[in-house]
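2024-03-11 09:14:02 INFO worker-7 job=invfold-0412 stage=load source=structure_tokens
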């Protein structure tokens, strides 16, 4: 085991000098935003609103290509005393493979240039490198200016690409990293980037009040986190009156239950006396005591208004000024009555609902969100693909599928529902959304409308196939309006933890040991605002390409091997820190990918990576233009999906089987074959064999596999096989050394967190409020019990596979084997369920059912898509699509172990959410 020495002074220095939003002003240091999208573009317009509000110190410029970015930066360097370019933000459309950003000024001058430079891809950057090397006269100025610009980009500079899904392209990120000199980190999202120009504030929105907006600013880092609770009164109001993300909470101050005209619980005398006092506009001292139990202090100036005698009242408290707004603090009090059979059998409660208002509403606010693929499709209203055919630039068109496509397109153009050859639109809709009496209306040569009980839009779309082709499809969309989109954004999409990549870029410059220094410093002594920074340091630590290899040699790893649910303080927050982090940041999976921090390559250049090291990408021939469909609100959206422009392409990239594989795929297959032939041997023995296997006279198989432009595919293949091989239980073998629960939790579950646990976050939000009363309280306790019970049953499935070899199924029904909620409660607490009213017992049972249903649903959904989640993991680790296929074809992957990793990841995350003590929530 490698000894780890902690230097708290070094950790203190890293924290003190941290760089985050807002970036500090420094003489000679400049930051830039370059917009490829126009100010009228439905993505570009809200993006400008966002950056104009929050990034006021960045110099912004509209550009048309990558060369113009260099031109502008060069001009700035010549005219101003610029010592460092700190951040470059590029706002553009994009997808999994490319940025819709021409590389050169002359990209559209002729067909040859168009095929080489019309968009930014790994191949087009390779084309540029080749043109520079050949001293292309038309690019001399570009070449010379770039040399001067990169001198101002240092190790503590970074490039942030604000474009959908471009972070998925490891090749593209590395190409831009090289283009900008090889010192500055390059970041891009691997999901859809969404900017919203006007996010509504109200009860039906993710931001329900002005104080919710204040909380949003805190969580985004626009307001310094350490200053959040500088005023005690403000803390009480934010924490008690506004339940973050869900609106106000309520509590009871009195109540009783009547059965056969006899009080069986509660105090009717106290209850009636309070009502009498309120009707006389009096506030008894007992009320102030009841409010104090909720940690709410009533002022001396409090007054009461009668809204409806014997039923509703309003308490007016003092006023409070926050951020220039004057708030009136009010509490609505009202009777809630539930009759069971007749008046002799009922339950009465006196509820308090805090209200917070001020006389002026905030202006509309711009925010940023991220969408997954599924969310983007739902936002656009995409239902399913009706029919499609592929065109390969070398092999031509799939004739049979093209014939099928043409038949359906003809039906739509003719307004007919079927023909004599078996093509039937009603049948095609049957599984997705059955039609009753449809009518087809042609809107254009690329769009049709099906009018039925609901209206559907069919669009002709064009999608890139990787690496050399297109897919033409007829896709079906539901009719969607601007209001639908606004409603969708109100609750969907992920809120980032930080406005941008500032803090990530700062932390990515430190070594693993230095990041550990920071983590330990932040815990000695610990402060609640440190939780967020501990989390960010842990994320930076795990972004290091050699993290697992390094971590597996530490004593901390050994602890994880010996304890089944061990949460390493190096990589995970404890319960207290997790709760504190939720105050200062959103629960969010990191959507940013980076080039440099995750690269295992050693420094291979002196001053300019682009000039000194040839890019390993084949030159690209770009056949068509692209007009991607960003998931942004269309201000001119009428009542349906807008007609696509003449050259309309969907963002999605479809990965097809490649006829001519690149060299990395071939060598990867050879490497897997070597591993397969030598299964059971140690990692060192396999390495030795790789080093003795020649690819050519100058390169061994090991050399090739460890020099894949910064991504060590030999190491990655081993990491993956150690988790998912059928031989992972063979002690001491290559593919078992890290194949443990601890390894799968760190290497797998965390990297696909939202793929396996996203929906649980919504459930968690409803479990956090500590102040709910009565039936709601018992329903929450029941839900927690259900989560615990369902999770226990997941562990039983894991145990049966690990120790008894019982295969993991694709679906399970937990209910037949789950105990009754009374039994489950006693099993977990050791005491019977003690609920004052039958209705509370019923609520507990409902919550229990909901908890198990949630676990069962998530488990079955994840098992059903286990191979797609595994593929997501493989691609995230840095391997290519063809590598995934080779892994499956090799026989070295055991689907049961893939399912095992997914179940254990789910088990770990549910354990964190269901960690509440049931006794606490039922006291």
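2024-03-11 09:14:09 INFO worker-7 stage=emit residues=923
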């Amino acid at each position: 085991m490698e000894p780890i020495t902690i230097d708290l002074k070094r950790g203190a220095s890293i924290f003190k000098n941290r760089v985050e939003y807002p970036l500090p002003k420094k003489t000679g240091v400049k930051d830039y935003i370059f917009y490829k999208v126009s100010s009228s573009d439905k993505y570009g317009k809200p993006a400008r609103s966002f950056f104009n509000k929050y990034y006021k110190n960045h110099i912004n410029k509209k550009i048309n290509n990558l060369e113009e970015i260099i031109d502008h930066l060069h001009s700035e360097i010549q005219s101003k005393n610029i010592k460092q370019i700190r951040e470059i933000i590029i706002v553009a459309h994009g997808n999994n493979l490319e940025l819709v950003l021409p590389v050169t000024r002359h990209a559209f001058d002729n067909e040859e240039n168009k095929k080489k430079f019309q968009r930014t891809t790994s191949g087009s950057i390779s084309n540029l490198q080749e043109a520079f090397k050949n001293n292309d006269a038309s690019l001399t100025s570009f070449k010379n200016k770039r040399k001067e610009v990169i001198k101002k980009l240092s190790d503590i500079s970074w490039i942030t690409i604000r474009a959908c899904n471009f972070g998925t392209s490891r090749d593209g990120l590395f190409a831009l990293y090289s283009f900008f000199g090889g010192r500055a980190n390059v970041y891009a999202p691997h999901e859809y980037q969404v900017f919203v120009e006007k996010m509504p504030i109200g009860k039906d929105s993710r931001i329900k009040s002005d104080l919710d907006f204040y909380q949003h600013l805190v969580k985004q880092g626009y307001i310094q986190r350490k200053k959040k609770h500088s005023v005690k009164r403000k803390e009480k109001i934010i924490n008690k009156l506004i339940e973050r993300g869900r609106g106000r909470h309520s509590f009871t101050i009195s109540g009783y239950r009547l059965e056969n005209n006899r009080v069986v619980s509660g105090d009717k005398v106290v209850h009636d006396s309070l009502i009498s006092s309120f009707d006389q506009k009096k506030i008894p001292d007992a009320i102030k005591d009841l409010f104090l139990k909720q940690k709410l202090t009533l002022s001396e100036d409090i007054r009461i208004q009668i809204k409806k005698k014997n039923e509703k009242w309003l308490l007016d408290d003092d006023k409070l000024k926050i951020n220039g707004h004057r708030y009136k603090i009010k509490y609505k009090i009202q009777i809630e009555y539930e009759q069971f059979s007749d008046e002799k059998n009922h339950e009465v409660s006196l509820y308090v609902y805090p209200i917070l208002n001020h006389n002026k509403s905030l202006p509309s606010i711009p925010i940023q969100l991220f969408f997954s693929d599924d969310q983007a499709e739902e936002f656009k209203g995409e239902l399913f693909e009706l029919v499609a055919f592929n065109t390969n630039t070398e092999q031509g068109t799939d004739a049979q599928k093209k014939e099928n496509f043409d038949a359906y397109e003809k039906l739509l153009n003719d307004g007919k529902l079927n023909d004599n050859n078996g093509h039937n639109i009603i049948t095609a809709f049957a599984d997705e959304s059955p039609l009753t009496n449809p009518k087809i209306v042609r809107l254009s040569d690329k769009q049709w409308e099906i009018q039925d009980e609901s209206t559907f839009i069919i669009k002709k779309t064009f999608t890139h196939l990787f690496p050399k082709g297109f897919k033409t499809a007829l896709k079906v969309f539901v009719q969607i309006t601007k209001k639908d989109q606004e409603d969708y954004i109100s609750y969907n999409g992920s809120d980032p933890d930080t406005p941008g990549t500032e803090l990530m870029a700062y932390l990515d410059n430190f070594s693993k040991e230095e990041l550990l220094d920071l983590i330990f410093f932040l815990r000695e002594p610990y402060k609640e605002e440190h939780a967020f920074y501990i989390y960010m340091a842990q994320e930076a630590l795990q972004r290091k390409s050699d993290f697992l290899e390094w971590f597996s040699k530490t004593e901390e790893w050994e602890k994880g091997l010996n304890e089944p649910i061990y949460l390493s303080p190096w990589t995970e927050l404890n319960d207290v820190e997790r709760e504190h982090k939720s105050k200062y940041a959103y629960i969010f999976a990191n959507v940013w990918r980076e080039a440099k921090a995750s690269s295992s390559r050693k420094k291979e250049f002196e001053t300019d990576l682009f000039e000194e090291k040839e890019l390993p990408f084949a030159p690209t021939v770009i056949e068509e233009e692209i007009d991607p469909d960003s998931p942004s609100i269309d201000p001119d959206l009428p009542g349906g999906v807008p007609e696509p422009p003449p050259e309309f392409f969907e963002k999605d990239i479809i990965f097809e089987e490649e006829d001519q594989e690149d060299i990395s795929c071939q060598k990867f297959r050879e490497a897997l074959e070597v591993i397969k032939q030598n299964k059971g041997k140690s990692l060192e023995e396999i390495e030795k064999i790789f080093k003795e296997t020649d690819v050519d006279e100058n390169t061994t198989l090991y050399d090739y596999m460890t020099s894949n432009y910064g991504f060590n595919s030999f190491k990655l293949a081993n990491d993956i096989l150690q988790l998912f091989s059928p031989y992972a239980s063979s002690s001491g073998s290559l593919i078992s050394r890290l194949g443990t629960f601890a390894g799968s939790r760190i290497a797998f579950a965390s990297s696909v967190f939202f793929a396996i646990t996203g929906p649980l976050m919504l459930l968690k939000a409803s479990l956090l409020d500590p102040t709910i009363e009565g039936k709601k309280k018992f329903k929450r306790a029941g839900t927690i019990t259900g989560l615990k019970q369902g999770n226990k049953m997941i562990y039983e499935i894991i145990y049966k596979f690990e120790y008894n070899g019982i295969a993991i199924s694709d679906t399970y029904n937990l209910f037949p084997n789950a105990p009754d909620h009374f039994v489950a409660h006693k099993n977990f607490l050791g005491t019977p369920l003690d609920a004052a009213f039958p209705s509370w017992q019923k609520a507990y049972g409902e919550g229990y059912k909901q908890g198990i249903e949630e676990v069962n649903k998530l488990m079955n959904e994840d098992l059903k898509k286990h191979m797609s989640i595994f593929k997501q993991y493989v691609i995230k680790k840095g391997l290519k699509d063809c590598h995934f296929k080779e892994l499956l074809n090799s026989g070295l992957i055991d689907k049961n172990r893939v399912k095992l990793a997914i179940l254990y990841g789910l088990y770990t995350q549910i354990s964190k959410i269901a960690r509440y003590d049931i006794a606490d929530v039922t006291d």
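2024-03-11 09:14:09 INFO worker-7 stage=report msg="The longest helix spans residues 774-804."
2024-03-11 09:14:10 INFO worker-7 job finished
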